[in-house]
């Protein structure tokens, strides 16, 4: 009965997956949860990394593979150990550096482009970003919404005390299933028992 609560999906990940599935060559496929994690960690729009990767490398169709740099970070000269590092550092740059303070305040794509791209022309870059941002938003996930709703409504709650018990357990269940990766230094090996114990 409680498994329905624990299995709730992040529908943003479904949107990203369905969007990236349109580009079978994209090495970003399978990294949807990493994109979401970094976006939430640094307070950035979850669609933005994918949009920049689309404008800079056609979602990874053309980029220096040995550098793992799909976003043109440092004019494409930056080298990352992995795709995740590219996701993390690009999102961190936009979410924390003072150059992007105006963009973080206004959320205006033009304010991002003038800093990130740096030099004109800007119009095509803007169109590319806008296309991806709008396309991800427009991805239809109604079928998944319905599945998630059915999981909740199919729970058999016999009485009020059972309902209270479910609500009380919900937070513990989510906490057990959601590992706080931000609590662990990059590169540290952590055992399953340590994760469960919160160490």
Explain what this protein looks like in three dimensions:
The chain has 199 residues and is mainly alpha-helical. The chain has 2 domains: 11-138, Lysozyme; 156-199, no CATH class. It is 58% helix and 0% strand. It has 11 helices and no strands. It has helices at 3-6, 11-20, 32-42, 48-57, 83-96, 101-106, 109-116, 123-138, 142-153, 160-177, 192-197. Helix 4 (48-57) crosses helix 8 (123-138). The longest helix is centred in the C-terminal third of the chain and has 18 residues, at 160-177.
List keywords for this structure.
single chain, 199 residues, mainly alpha, Lysozyme, 2 domains, 0% strand, disordered N terminus
Reading the helices and strands in chain order gives HHHHHHHHHHH
Number of helices: 11
**Average residue-wise pLDDT:** 83
Oligomer: single chain
Q: What is the CATH architecture term of the largest domain?
A: Orthogonal Bundle
Helix percent reads 55-70%
* Overall tally of structural domains: 2
Based on helices, strands and strand pairing, what is the structural class? Answer: mainly alpha
The shape is globular
Number of strands: 0
Name of the level-1 CATH class of the largest domain: Mainly Alpha
Residue windows where pLDDT falls under 50 for at least 5 positions? 1-7
* Portion in beta strands: under 5%
